[in-house]
Specification:
This protein is α+β, with helices and mostly antiparallel strands. It is 18% helix and 25% strand. It has a five-stranded antiparallel sheet with strand order 1-2-9-4-7, with no helix packed on it. A five-stranded antiparallel sheet has the order 6-5-8-3-10.
Length: 221
């Protein structure tokens, strides 16, 4: 059976397009230090650049990741401090970022995903249980101690749990996008604005309308 020429053309075009997809586009110059002073009158991927002649060493460094985050800021007991084009203007267009993850005793970075980046995390303090679920619904988990690393593939749901009930944990994560994005599964599902209709959630999770109300209330929705 011959494949129709139109289908061959479609498959060829699709392969060419997907072959060019990357987490972030490659920069066209050495660097593009984000202009955080002038109002942005148009929107684009990344931030507008300052004049390269105005570049300074301080544009390429930050001390923000040296400061512990407030793990009491949410009910799960974690805090993320991420580099961005505000606190580290020199990373603009370079296709990467770092994040400090502080997790309280028995705290949890709940199941979430990053739509635009893979993540590799290294445990610096504490004892962590980390894991992700692939698209076949298979779970991969690992216990991490100081100096040990784990990678979360792009777009897959994953979590980090501090197994120590007595002390905090600390990790540093790297992403292959300057803006990886993040969605917590429970929050996106039950506290969206406007809310997902109850009938959808009751059918999706085989729960009652009162369960939906209770879960939303527990999550602050």
């Amino acid at each position: 059976m011959k494949t129709p020429p139109s289908l061959l053309n479609f498959l060829l075009t699709l392969s060419l397009i997907t072959g060019q997809i990357k987490p972030d586009p490659n920069p066209l110059q050495d660097y593009c230090i984000a202009d955080n002073q002038n109002p942005q009158s148009f929107f684009l991927d990344g931030s507008p650049c300052i004049n390269p002649k105005e570049a300074r060493p301080t544009h390429f460094g930050t001390s923000d990741l040296s400061k512990p985050g407030n793990t009491k800021a949410n009910q799960f007991g974690f805090y993320i401090t991420q580099t961005n084009t505000i606190n580290l203007p020199g990373l603009n267009t370079l296709g990467l970022t770092l994040a400090r993850v502080d997790i309280a005793a028995n705290g949890l970075v709940p199941p979430h995903w990053h739509p635009r980046a893979s993540e590799v995390t290294i445990c610096l303090e504490g004892a962590l249980l980390v894991g992700f679920v692939d698209t076949s619904d298979r779970l991969y988990t690992q216990n991490l101690g100081p100096g040990e690393s784990f990678v979360f593939p792009k777009g897959l749901i994953h979590f980090l749990f501090n197994m120590n009930s007595q002390g905090p944990a600390l990790t540093i994560s790297g992403f292959n996008s300057q803006n990886p994005g993040a969605q917590i599964a429970s929050g996106a599902t039950f506290t969206s604005e406007p809310p997902i209709p109850d009938v959808v959630l009751t059918k999706a999770f085989n729960i009652s309308a009162s369960d939906v109300t209770r879960i939303r209330r527990n999550l602050g929705g």
